[in-house]
């Protein structure tokens, strides 16, 4: 199938009117829709934006290739647009984009379609071809240029390279349509220029092409893995590899090839581990590795936060009594599922999958056990973070220590030695080193707050509100909540009103931030933000944990300031709360103005949202 079977004159725009990324996407989507290629314009646009949220498709060199494979596409197609002045498309090289190819693939796109699209990606690596497209004066010229390029490339096949001095590479992107092949072509073109031998395996939507053989790997001078998704790694065990995101192979092929030719990289130990988290020859930064492990924990924890939180929220809708209990039997079951089961798994799951990201499957069990120990010791999600990283690196250490065991014991490592030693060491450190100090801090905070009830109400409101946002369900949060309950028992209903307001603000503030400052968040974060509206309104502070864990230095201060503001206003408005719980369902139990109480929460959420918007950087990964 030819590229011009997908790109027609009615899907070409020779002069884009848009000057911003979002508008370019909208203009190209509209062109495809007007040409009758889409079954759902909004569905396709949503899929395009979801792909952009994963990583920008502005690949550099003046090119952007927004693409999506979705059921919203009726007929596979390509839309092409030109912007002579250029558009800031958040491209990887920081330069404006001038050529835009929007790829619309059907959900069940066959190999012929996908191979055609990958061929287009390859053509765009030719600077002369790009210039021809940029200066085309008619749709016919564009079609003719692509036809000529296809005829020029016809008959070219992958040439088998000599094994001596051979550099190997694997490229893979999540969608497998554009970046995979552009990275491969970038490496091959630069290798040809540098007179190097290179063989590149592509892991695209059509499957693995030009697969590396055992002989290739055995004789390789160096190995590059440029991938944003999981690829087969066990075949590289014992070999030096350079692991980078796929975009790095497009932008920096010469640097990667030269490093590989010198045999630089980290020795792959198997099961996801290398001999060092960062070696002199590795191109992955330590901060990126930390973020990757953290995101693995958060993404696996998120379903428990959302599902459990919504179950708790629904249970509250059935009503609570004056003692804060749920008096409806079915509501009690919902609350039990959400609060006593799903939410109790948050910290263990977070810790387990952080450890698994670091040490592969052997890290999962020690991480979950360490996380559960943190949970039972009231260490909160911060304790879970410590447990996850601790377990992961403990298991990596165990792997290294057991490398010298006889081959006959190899089968015992994953089923016996790794889980036993991993749980033992992680558990002992958590029990004897981590959990004790956290429990002491928690108890000390509660005792200190107990003697603070007669101080300045506004200052107390600032303190209690801010504490609710510091660790969002952890020991500091629980200390403030316990103090509020104790004050209700003592007949002082003002402190708990500040506690409740402070607990509502973090998820509500983050929900507002994801709505107002959309470019600051990924698509997954924006989706999570929607659920935070419900969680915030029902006093589920933990809804903000994924945001806080992912970006603590920006999100936590913003949440604390907003929550403290709400707590201070609650005290200033002389609001009192009789019910020992939170959320809009307890507003009927407010003494004072419920409207002013709502205003205090709204102002606090706005403060948090604005601070997050100012502090966070625009997502362009």
From TrEMBL:
The keyword Transmembrane helix applies. Residues 290-621 form the PTS EIIC type-2 domain. SUPFAM superfamilies: Phoshotransferase/anion transport protein, PTS system IIB component-like. The chain crosses the membrane at residues 301-320, 342-359, 371-396, 416-435, 447-470, 497-517, 555-575, 595-615. Pfam families: PTS_EIIA_2, PTS_EIIC, PTS_IIB. Keywords: Cell membrane, Membrane, Phosphoprotein, Phosphotransferase system, Sugar transport, Transferase, Transmembrane, Transmembrane helix, Transport. Residues 5-149 form the PTS EIIA type-2 domain. Residues 275-284 have a biased composition (Basic and acidic residues). Residues 167-262 form the PTS EIIB type-2 domain. Residues 260-284 are annotated as: Disordered. It is found in: Cell inner membrane. It is a multi-pass membrane protein. This is PTS system, fructose-specific IIC component. It comes from Priestia endophytica DSM 13796. The lineage of its organism: Bacteria, Bacillati, Bacillota, Bacilli, Bacillales.
